[in-house]
C-alpha cells in the first residue's frame, strides 16, 4: 500500500481521536500518503475525503468525540453504496483503509475488503461489545465516568438512607454495568447476559437496610430495560422508592483516560504496520495485553463472551 485512509463510524467514543492521530502519524512515519474521510461511510459515498499531514491531528489526543465526525449511514448498507465508496477511494489511488468503530462499522469494513480495498478495523465503542478484543477504545473512559457519577450519587444516598437505580449504556452488552458496578461497590448489577430475580433483589434490599446498610445501588444496563421500570418493580415488592438516574450520553463524552489513549495509539499504529505487511480484512484487538488480528468476517459473526468470573466476584463482594 502507498495511500491509506482513515474513518470513524457508528457511535463515537473517547479515544477515537487518539486512534486517528496514531493512524495518520504512523502512516506518515512509514512514508505513506494518508487521507481522512469525514462523517464515516456517509463521507465515503459523498466523496468527503481530504489529505492529512502531521499538523492535521495536532492537539486532539486529549479530546473526546471525533474530529472526523461520524454517522450511521443507511445507504452504505446497499451494494451500490459500497461500490461507490470503494470507487471514491480507488480514484485517488487509496488502497488501504482503517475503520474505527463498532459492530456495524466492521460490517461495512468487511464489505469494502471484499471489494478489494485492504481494510483494517479498530474497535471504537464505549460498549466493549466487540469479540476478539478484551477492551474497546472508549470503554475505560465510559466506565470511569459511571464510577465517578456513582460516587456522587452514593454521597447523597447515604445521607438520606436511600436506594438508587442507575441506568447505564452498553446496548446489548452488560460490560459497562459490570465493570462500573464492581468498581463502585454496587449492591446489584443487572445485565442482559445474566437472568435476575426481582423478588430476591427487593428482599435483599430490605434486609440490608434492616442490617444497617445506609444505601443501596442497583446498576441497570440499558440492554435489560429502563431504570424507571426496574425501580417501579422494586417499589411494588418492598415499598422502597429508589431514586433513578439515567446517565445517558455523558458516558460518551469528555477527555479519554490514559488507558484509552494508549490503547488507541497502540492499535492505530499496529493497524498501519499490518497494512504495510500486506495484511487486510482483519480486526485489531488486544487480548491479555497482546495486540492481535482476527478475520473481520469471524468477528462480525461472533458474540462477545461475558465475564462471569468478574460478575460473580462483584456479587460476592457486595454483601
Ligand atoms: O454504541 C454506543 C451507544 O452509546 C450505546 O451504548 C447506545 O445504546 C447507543 O450508542 C445510543 O445511540 P445514539 O447516540 O444514536 O442514541
From TrEMBL:
Stated name of the protein: ATP-dependent 6-phosphofructokinase
Active-site residues, Swiss-Prot/TrEMBL: 127 (proton acceptor)
InterPro entries cross-referenced by the UniProt entry: ATP_PFK, ATP_PFK_prok-type, PFKA_ATP_prok, Phosphofructokinase_CS, Phosphofructokinase_dom, PKF_sf
Function: Catalyzes the phosphorylation of D-fructose 6-phosphate to fructose 1,6-bisphosphate by ATP, the first committing step of glycolysis.
Cellular localization per UniProt: Cytoplasm
The entry's keywords: Allosteric enzyme, ATP-binding, Cytoplasm, Glycolysis, Kinase, Magnesium, Metal-binding, Nucleotide-binding, Transferase
Pathway(s) of this molecule: Carbohydrate degradation; glycolysis; D-glyceraldehyde 3-phosphate and glycerone phosphate from D-glucose: step 3/4
Gene Ontology cellular component annotations, sorted alphabetically: 6-phosphofructokinase complex
Amino-acid positions noted as binding ADP in the UniProt annotation, renumbered to this chain: 21-25, 154, 185-187, 213-215
Residue ranges the record marks as coiled coil: none
Domain of life according to the entry: Bacteria
Entry EC no(s): 2.7.1.11
Catalytic activity: beta-D-fructose 6-phosphate + ATP = beta-D-fructose 1,6-bisphosphate + ADP + H(+)
Cofactor(s) needed by this chain: Mg(2+)
GO biological processes: canonical glycolysis; fructose 1,6-bisphosphate metabolic process; fructose 6-phosphate metabolic process
Protein family: Belongs to the phosphofructokinase type A (PFKA) family. ATP-dependent PFK group I subfamily. Prokaryotic clade 'B1' sub-subfamily.
Activity modulation: Allosterically activated by ADP and other diphosphonucleosides, and allosterically inhibited by phosphoenolpyruvate.
Gene that produces this protein: pfkA
Presence of the UniProt keyword ATP-binding in the record: yes
Organism from which the protein derives: Paenibacillus naphthalenovorans
Amino acid at each position: 500500500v502507498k495511500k491509506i485512509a482513515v474513518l470513524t463510524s457508528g457511535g463515537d467514543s473517547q479515544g477515537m481521536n487518539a486512534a486517528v492521530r496514531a493512524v495518520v502519524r504512523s502512516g506518515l512515519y512509514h512514508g505513506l500518503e494518508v487521507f481522512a474521510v469525514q462523517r464515516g461511510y456517509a463521507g465515503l459515498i459523498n466523496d468527503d475525503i481530504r489529505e492529512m499531514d502531521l499538523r492535521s491531528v495536532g492537539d486532539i489526543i486529549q479530546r473526546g468525540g471525533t474530529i472526523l465526525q461520524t454517522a450511521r449511514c443507511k445507504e452504505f448498507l446497499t451494494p451500490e453504496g459500497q461500490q461507490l465508496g470503494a470507487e471514491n477511494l480507488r480514484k485517488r489511488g487509496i488502497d488501504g483503509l482503517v475503520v474505527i468503530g463498532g459492530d456495524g462499522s466492521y460490517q461495512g469494513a468487511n464489505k469494502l475488503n471484499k471489494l478489494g480495498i485492504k481494510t483494517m478495523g479498530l474497535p471504537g465503542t464505549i460498549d466493549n461489545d466487540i469479540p476478539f478484543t478484551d477492551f474497546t477504545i472508549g470503554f475505560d473512559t465510559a466506565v470511569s465516568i459511571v464510577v465517578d457519577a456513582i460516587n456522587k450519587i452514593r454521597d447523597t444516598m447515604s445521607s438520606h438512607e436511600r436506594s438508587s437505580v442507575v441506568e447505564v449504556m452498553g446496548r446489548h452488552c452488560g460490560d459497562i454495568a459490570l465493570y462500573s458496578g464492581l468498581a463502585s461497590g454496587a449492591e446489584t448489577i443487572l445485565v442482559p447476559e445474566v437472568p435476575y430475580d426481582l423478588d430476591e433483589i427487593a428482599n435483599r434490599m430490605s434486609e440490608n437496610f434492616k442490617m444497617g446498610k445506609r444505601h443501596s445501588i442497583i446498576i441497570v444496563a440499558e440492554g435489560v430495560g429502563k431504570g424507571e421500570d426496574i425501580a417501579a418493580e422494586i417499589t411494588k415488592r418492598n415499598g422502597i422508592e429508589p431514586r433513578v438516574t439515567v446517565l445517558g450520553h455523558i458516558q460518551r463524552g469528555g477527555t479519554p483516560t490514559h488507558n484509552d489513549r494508549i490503547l488507541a495509539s497502540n492499535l492505530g499504529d499496529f493497524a498501519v504496520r499490518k497494512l504495510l505487511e500486506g495484511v487486510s480484512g482483519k480486526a485489531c484487538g488486544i487480548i491479555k495485553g497482546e495486540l492481535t488480528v482476527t478475520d473481520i468476517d469471524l468477528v462480525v459473526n461472533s458474540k462477545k463472551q461475558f465475564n462471569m468470573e468478574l460478575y460473580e466476584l462483584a456479587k460476592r463482594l457486595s454483601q
